[in-house]
Amino acid sequence: MTVMVRKIKRGAFWAGLSTVLVYILSLLARLLLMAIIAREDFGLIATANLALDALVLFQEMGFGSALIYRKSDVDEAADTAFYLLLLTGVATYAVAFLSAPAIAHIASKPDPRIIPLVRVLSLSILFSAFARVPVVMLSREMDFRRKAVTDVVPTLSNVIVSVLLALAGWGVWSLVYGRLTSALVRVVVSWWVTGWKPHVVFAPRIARELFAYGKHIFQSQMLIFLITNIDDFFVIHLLGYWEEGAYDAAYRLSNLPTTFITKTAGQVMFPAMARLRDDKAEFRRVFFQSTHYIGLASIPLSFGLILLAPSLMGMVGPKKWADAVLPMQLLVVYGMVRSIAANMGSVFKGGGKPQWLTYIALWRLTTMAIFLYPATSRYGIVGVSALSAIVSVVDFFISGELANRIIEAAWGEYVPVIGPIFVWSAVATVVAWLAQQAISAESPVVSFLVGGTVLTLVYVPLAFFRDEPLRKQVGALWRMAWQQMR
Fold first, then answer.
1. Number of domains into which the chain is organized
2. pLDDT 10s digits, 266-320
3. DSSP letters of 250-311?
4. Beta carbons of 455 and 431 less than 8 angstroms apart
5. pLDDT digits (tens, 9 = 90+) for 163-187
């Protein structure tokens, strides 16, 4: 086993462990908050987040990815990136503060509460500027054991603050102060864990080089942001905060597991592939292996969410959230496809073709822009969700065709990698659905527990005993976990 493969496995273990913890905390917090906070408040905070998340892209400008990809003058590049991020952070905060009244008019019927929400939330942009480089350096060195702390602790602080404030009746502001707390805690934890300190160094030459690479990442990220959020814009503008609250809840719950899986894969795979780009055979092998393990987690979770969506919404409020069930099930398809296709993005970046991300994103944005208005105005949030699912499937095949050119692969090679996982997941889901029908439980909690338990009890043995590489990896990870915990 090569040194790089061992680093990938250690990184996957710690990134995976932090992902599981963050996922559980985020899911529980989301469900609790959905039961406590008014549905319209989720639409308000989604509108504020929509604007701020766009501005954050201008702050980051792809400098983090450029720093990971870089081979020379790394320390000097880290210092330069730090000051660039501080500069762009201050500028972005100023833009957010001043543009708050305009952001309020995204909705056809503006709510004045948006203005203070945006201005207070924009403080998180300033906080994140201080944490970005230390966290990126951990990713670059594939030190995901320490990076796990910078993920879990801020999430835990967000959950505690937002839930306690929501229980105290703070409404939408509980979500605001939870996010601010998380951003501030991330700064403290990242500096404490890494021990990294910037030097008074700013190299214009390196700044230009960071921008030269980062601009492709920024362009693709901006396009991806527009693709993944233009639907929210149409829902907010055409349907209002009430419908956006349901759509945002459906999207976040349906994509929560796949988002964390994708994030974990991206954290590990991009640094790894950036280093393996000169070894085509190993590059290709690592891609298919990682795609297999992503599928082992994301595909059954997606099947399970389709099955359990009615129970989940029933637990947090059947009347308040009933119309979010079908959109959630449709968006699960979008999330599942995205989780597998996202690994192809690491191939583009690691293979030195970051501009391909821009081309793919531009195609998706154009397609969504053409069809979103009729889908939203005629079919509401169900139409938006169906369109997202369809476009994601087409996007998968486009991304796969381009990725295959880099790794020199054929489509037939994907069948043994993810095909059996679809079969095992489908079998487990059907058995779980039959179990739910057999008990005919009126309680959504009972239905959720029965369905989730049966699906797990069927899928896990199927995957474990039918997948020899998985058995070997479980044994290796168990030994690694034991060594890491000692």
1. 1
2. 555 555 655 666 667 777 887 888 888 888 888 999 999 999 999 989 888 878 8
3. HHHHHHHHHHHHHHHHHHHHHHHHHHHTT-HHHHHHHHHHHHHHHHHHHHHHHHHHHHHHHH
4. yes
5. 999 999 999 999 999 999 999 998 9
